Amino acid sequence: ENSALVLDSAFEMMPGVKRIALVSGTAPNDSYGEEIFRKRLKDYSGRRFELIDLTKLSMADTLKRVATLPPHTIVYYESITSDASDKIFVPREALSTISKAANAPVFGLYDSYMGYGIVGGRLVSFEQQGKLAAKLALRVLSGEEPGSIPFAGEGTYASLYDWRQLKRWGIPVSAVPPGSEIRYREHSLWEDHAREILGVACLLMIQTVLIF
Questions:
Q1: Which end of the chain is less packed: N or C, by CB atoms within 10 Å?
Q2: pTM of the predicted structure, to 2 decimals
Q3: In the chain, % of residues over pLDDT 70
């Protein structure tokens, strides 16, 4: 379900997608996430996608492949903790390297990937999971039976998007789902200093009138 939410967001913003390049490493946790993604992809039986398998490659080979992807492709990055050459990586740092080399938008599952090259989407939020766990623990400590507390899984997601990636791939902000948070937005001079600009303009107009 988690990866499906991210894919749904990608398809809504980019309806012309025909191919999905799956990137994942060789570590057990990498393979586990990869298998879940492959199962979720079967839920899209009504749409035909070409799956480009970029799993279990060396980082060098991965970078070459993502740089030459065909049109109408998106990259789904699961994680790379280790690659085919047994090199160890921090997953989000590997993501950053891949995103910079890719010629197609990159999507991922976790909010911890924000700022490292993913476009965004309905992401699993570790921050929200932590807050929810703390609230549940407090309720149990106050005397509630754990089995009587409903699990509000919806509260563990966050709709987040990276403005820089939207701009890079020509995705209009209007395509982002309403209510989403857009991070890393670069404001124009007018947006940051509208009052000062208007103040100076008014002052110049007054001076011009006085001179005349």
A1: C
A2: 0.77
A3: 76
Q: Token pair for residue 127?
A: 């921050």
* Burial of residue 107, with CB atoms counted within 10 A of its CB: 0-12 exposed, 13-18 middle, 19 or more buried: buried
Q: Which segments of the chain does DSSP mark as H helices, in order?
A: 2-13, 28-41, 59-66, 91-101, 126-141, 163-168, 189-211
Terminal-to-terminal C-alpha distance of the chain? 70
Structure tokens at 73: 């492709």
Q: What are the residues facing 55 on neighbouring strands?
A: 24
Q: Which of 8, 81, 13 has the alpha carbon at shortest distance from 47?
A: 8
CB atoms within 10 A of CB 161: 26
Contact between 107 and 74 under an 8 Å Cβ cutoff? The reply is yes
pLDDT value, residue 196:
60
C-alpha count within 13 angstroms, C-beta hemisphere, residue 36: 15
Q: What is the pLDDT of residues 144-166, one digit of tens each?
A: 555 544 444 555 788 999 999 99
Please say if the pLDDT value at position 129 is more than 70: no
How many Cβ atoms sit within 10 Å of the Cβ of residue 1? 9
3-state secondary structure of 1: coil
Stated length of the chain: 212
CA angle (34 as vertex; 30, 38 as ends), nearest 5: 175
pLDDT digits (tens, 9 = 90+) for 36-79: 999 888 877 667 789 999 999 999 999 999 999 999 999 999 99
pLDDT of residue 210: 75
Q: Where are the alpha helices (DSSP H) in 42-125?
A: 59-66, 91-101
